[in-house]
Amino acid sequence: MYSHVHGGILRSQYRNVARIPASSPFEEDDEAIGHPPETLLHNQQPHRRRRFGGAVSYRQQISEESTVTVTEGRVFDLPLLRLPPLPPLSQPGPPPSRQVIETYTDLHQAFESLSEKEKKARRRALSRLSVVGKTAERVREHPVLEVLHARVRSQSQPGQRTDPYKIGLAIEGGGMRGAVSAGAAAAINLLGLSDGFDAVYGSSAGALIAAFFVSGQLNGTIIYSDVLPAAGKRFLDRAQLIPAMGLLPGVEAKPVLNLQFLEDVIRNTVRLDWASFWAKNAVQPLNVVASSLDGMESLALRSDKGDFDSFESLIQCLKSSMCVPGVAGPPVFLNVTCRQTGERKERAFADALVFEPIPLKSAVEDGCTHIVTLRTRPDGSEVLGHKVTGIYERFIARRFLADLHKFRPAAMHMTKFDHLRQYAADLLLLNEGSHAKATGVHVPDGKGGGRAVHLLPVAPPMGTTEVDTLDSSREALRKGLKDGFAAAWNLMASPELAEVYPGEVVASELFDCEDVETFDLTFKRFSTVFQGGIGQAEENGLRATKQEQLLFPRQGPHQPRLA
After folding, report:
1. How far apart are CA 537 and CA 539, in angstroms?
2. CA–CA gap between residue 116 and residue 357 (Å, rounded)
3. Are 166 and 362 in contact (CB under 8 A)?
4. Residue in 414, 165, 203 with CA at minimum distance from that of residue 289
5. What are residue 9's DSSP bridge partners?
């Protein structure tokens, strides 16, 4: 049977099985809720009747003499309806031309120039804009790298700085794309640069990666390389996307992403070391960025505000940052400090993607002068354009936020694709910041700034395959780890080290390990050789390879010998 879905009605050339769509507070946005149902025509055989289920109140014109009202929760007998075939949903021809957006100002002007009708049809407007990541080629003299390497050379420690700067590490998530930022964080750790940061910020999966980074644990990447791929449907079940859309009436939707499983992992399998984390958090604080659904803003949850002070409360904050609306379970309710009044108040939280998918705003508001941002999409990957399908926003997020939990303003924010606009705006600022500038990048007031900040984005190079948000296969996640590791290593290592030991080589040796024990030994060997020299590795019982013995000095960090 050949069918069309158009105007809110499922049509068939042979029969009609129609269900009127759920009501919505966004009826002014035809792109978000579909067009109103069209006029229905009488069947030529009025004695045949079919049961018809209604979901909302609509008055449909059946003929000039008769009408029928479909009321919520009731079922009526209607004549079998025979509808004429619909024209094709899209006319053949070349795709519409796209406007390439290069700067934050260009994006703002593109939206200001939209007509009122175009602003309502936001999906169409965004699909005609092209925004991609474009980090500069390896920048040897970027202000962020200069300050970071100077701190490492002087053995500066968090909480004991002698320079006037504040360097933040902002970590993007993105579901399974978090493997990329996990690999990049591992490279920073292995290079001995972790003590150069004054604060760490994480959005969504980036918050979990940030917690392991602060604790100094090297095994956080195992979650992506081994644990999640082996979990199967215990963690990620794509089949639950259908009930999440409300397409199976009477069937309760289970989480597509099971955060309870992930909680069990960081409690037992790859346990987050609370003692190490809490000690380091005192001088290098973790900021867990999550979206307040009732406050319509992003908040950075941190210990000095009283948002967490124990392993249990930290886990709840991490879950609030990773709770994708309609995909990862109900909202997480936390008592937090209100910005306006300073009072403690219970708020409902969901994934950071709603209001701050890249934790850039929180880092700027916290006073950072230099920010390293770990991106999870490769350069050249489109963030608007053809990716603005609206399936998640219109069918899953809206149902979850507006219909099930009554957060209608947050649902409006999603169905208007404002979260994608924010993501694109942050990406454009990072593009600008990747080109070394002595004056930094002016961050607008709306991004928590109104001042110049030095921004250094880290992302896989153009041509790299993007990790799908819901791809938990071992091959995809290990490749994501290696891509992120290589990107950070090649950018942030000393030129001599990156030349003789490229990030791709180190990443392959690390993440192609067959078991966790081999990974730990390889990581420790690399870390000791790169930071302490061959002699220290031998003292610790770690055997360096012949190539490392030729390249690296007996004592002393960082600089290999070049024969």
Report:
1. 5
2. 27
3. no
4. 203
5. 6
